[in-house]
Design brief:
Elements: H1 3-12, E1 17-23, E2 29-35, H2 41-46, E3 48-51, E4 65-70, E5 76-77, E6 85-93, H3 104-118, E7 123-135, E8 137-142, E9 147-152, H4 187-199, E10 204-209, E11 216-221, E12 224-225, H5 226-246, E13 250-252, E14 266-274, E15 277-278, H6 291-302, H7 304-311, H8 317-320, E16 333-335, E17 342-344, E18 356-358, H9 367-383, H10 405-409, H11 418-427, H12 430-433, H13 440-460, H14 464-470
Parallel strand pairs: 1-6, 16-17
Antiparallel strand pairs: 1-2, 3-4, 4-6, 5-6, 7-11, 7-12, 7-13, 7-14, 8-9, 10-11, 14-15, 14-18, 17-18
Helix pairs in contact: 3-5, 3-9, 4-5, 5-9, 6-9, 7-9, 7-11, 11-13
Keywords: ATP-binding, Cytoplasm, Ligase, Nucleotide-binding
Catalytic activity: L-glutamate + NH4(+) + ATP = L-glutamine + ADP + phosphate + H(+)
GO molecular function, one term: glutamine synthetase activity
């Protein structure tokens, strides 16, 4: 789209406000709204100023002036504002006109440029599957004298015996994988989410109830190139949350908001193309994968502990990554096997649909950073011709959770905490620096931010369950 196209779109829909949006380092959106009367081609080209010191992970107050410039092809009509409003994602610039090195969107774009510069491929395609919960109520607090959280859902199994009148059909633990109504109470709200996503220009493929009780859901959209798919993830989360709120409900992408049932992941399908030529397919190879695809898998699994610092970047991520809840904690690859960290889909596969699926990530990831890190790891595997079998990553075609203790001992597992993956990133990040995609400053800033703002505050606070364990000792 051009600036004139945007102005014409605004005229057609009587747009009164334009919402400029950026994404901070942890992965939250921020916005500045400008009256349509102030928008012309010059504003759309030069952008608007903002205070970078107030954006988490950006910069200090002594050098805070920054500029956001709209990426015109991301524009969509916001369905949640009272007056017609056009929302548009932006790139972040220095006042000098240079791109800002800590802008997550810039890192994603640099990863795509690096891919082209290697001569390996022209495009990397990503297709994430986002899972989330739709709750009817959520309450939490953490003070000097106490801490608690509580979530609730009308379809949760723990509500099967409460209330003056109970109609049953509650979703049992691990029994929520697409039952029909009345067990599935959220068909209409998911459909409304899909319709709003489609109006925003997102091609949706399907939606369904997910495995867990208490309103776990999944809506799948069509794959795309790296940066544009990350843009789509941000729009997706915005629309899902606001449709839920429209219905007096709340949506969360936390990996493990409830105890004793499956958590929510973000399985990421990936493939490389050179022009129109798919690079991951070879008929007769393992799961019809090419050598290029196997090298890519090896890079993902070899660097997985460091990747997880971006793809599973919350303390809550590691409440999900435990055995027994379909969580892919095992660093192996396998054909069609959902208990492996890397699964190779084998149903209805053609050369152009051949792909690999990294199942470990979750939705607390900043998608620009996570996708870029995955691509850089895969390319490192290709560049170094890493062999996943020689490295001990499989393939394993059995249910890993049912292997003997001796067999399990041969399988590498993902790290068990945010602290461990930050340590892994600190020790293994050279592959991310190739082509200047990530910078040492960004990685140092990311590690320090996570340790200082998430790990340290959590470690200082008593946990409610500690009272059950230790109060009477």
């Amino acid at each position: 789209m051009t600036s004139r196209d945007i102005l014409e779109l605004m005229k057609q829909h009587d747009v009164q406000m334009v919402d400029f949006r950026i994404v901070d380092v942890p992965g939250r959106q921020h916005h500045v709204t400008v009256p349509a009367a102030e928008i012309d081609e010059e504003v759309l080209e030069r952008g608007v100023a903002f205070d970078g010191s107030s954006v988490p992970g950006f910069r200090g107050i002594e050098e805070s002036d920054m500029v956001m410039r709209p990426v015109l092809e991301t524009a969509f009509l916001d369905p949640f504002t009272e007056v017609p409003t056009l929302a548009v994602s932006c790139n972040v610039y220095e006042p000098s006109g240079n791109r800002y090195e800590r802008d997550p969107r810039y890192i994603a774009e640099k990863a795509e440029e690096y891919l082209k510069s290697t001569g390996i491929a022209t495009n990397a395609y990503f297709g994430p599957e986002l899972e989330f919960f739709i709750f009817d109520d959520v309450r939490f607090d953490s003070t000097q004298s106490g801490a608690f959280y509580a979530v609730d859902s009308e379809e949760a199994v723990w509500n099967s015996g409460v209330g003056d009148k109970n109609l049953g059909y509650h979703v049992k633990n691990k029994s929520g994988y697409f039952p029909v109504a009345p067990t599935d109470t959220q068909q209409d709200i998911r459909t409304e989410m899909v319709l709003e996503l489609m109006k925003a220009g997102i091609r949706v493929e399907r939606h369904h109830h997910e495995v867990a009780t208490a309103g776990q859901a999944e809506i799948n959209f069509r794959f795309g190139t790296l940066t544009r798919t990350a843009d789509t993830v941000m729009t997706y989360k915005y629309i899902v949350r606001n449709v839920a709120r429209r219905h007096g409900k709340t949506a969360t992408f936390m990996p493990k908001p409830i105890f004793g049932d499956n958590g929510s992941g973000m399985h990421v399908h990936q493939s490389l193309f050179n022009g129109d030529e798919p690079l991951f397919y070879r008929e007769g190879g393992y799961a019809n994968l090419s050598e290029t695809a196997l090298h890519y898998i090896a890079g993902i699994l070899y660097h997985a502990p460091a990747i997880l610092a971006f793809s599973n970047p919350s303390t809550n991520s590691y409440k999900r990554l435990v055995p027994g809840y379909e969580a892919p904690v095992n660093l192996v690859f396998s054909r069609g096997n959902r208990s492996a960290a890397v699964r190779v889909p084998v149903a209805v596969v053609s050369p152009k649909t051949a792909r690999i699926e990294f199942r470990t990530p979750d939705c607390t990831a900043n998608p620009y950073l996570a996708f870029a890190a995955m691509l850089m790891a895969g390319l490192d595997g290709i560049r170094r011709k890493l062999d996943p079998t020689e490295l001990g990553f499989g393939p394993i075609n059995k249910n890993i959770y049912e292997l003997s203790a001796e067999e399990k001992a041969q399988i590498k597992s993902v790290p068990g905490s945010l602290g461990e993956v930050l340590d892994a990133l600190e020790a293994d990040h050279e592959f991310l620096l190739e082509g200047g995609v990530f910078t040492k400053d960004f990685i140092r800033n990311w590690i320090d931010f996570k340790r200082n703002n998430e790990l340290a505050p959590l470690h200082l606070r008593p946990h409610p369950y500690e009272f059950s364990l230790y109060f009477d000792l």
